[in-house]
Amino acid sequence: MIFNAYQDSKIGIAGISVISSGHIFAQKGRKIDRPKGRSDYLLFYIAKGKELFYLENEIVGEEGSFIIFRPFEKQEHIYIDNKPGEFYFIHFDAPDNFDLFEFESSVLYNSKLSTAICDLFEEIIDELQKKQPAYEKLCTSKLFTIFSLLERKSRKETSAKEKYFDKISFVIQ
Asked: For residue 155, how many C-alpha atoms fall within 13 Å in the half-sphere facing its CB?
């Protein structure tokens, strides 16, 4: 089952616009196989379960993991968990020289699951469905917020300096 919505225009911010967004509910064996990718960018976020990605090596993403694909990059992955899974996605347009907010494409990033990020995906889907005035810009601004939160979370997870930041902040407060 998929809940998704599409934009009717290419209005956005700084050349970036959201094309579509969705919330996927998957069972074991659900597969995405796009040997030549799509003509737009894709942000794929794992909310529940495990997804096997066929990149240079096979790699499993778990809850909170995400991946970004550039246009026309191979996209091949399959849901491998026995329990039902949930994913969010956003397809978006961006200029050719778009830097992916300093992330690399076709690289799986691991992070802890964020309800704030899931909520932003839901808000984008809602905006795309209702299409109220300025929804295009709101969707793009929420996409920027998602990327900013993903950057913050993934850097916290990988930075030795910030590994215990949350615990130390709690003690200080």
From this structure: 10
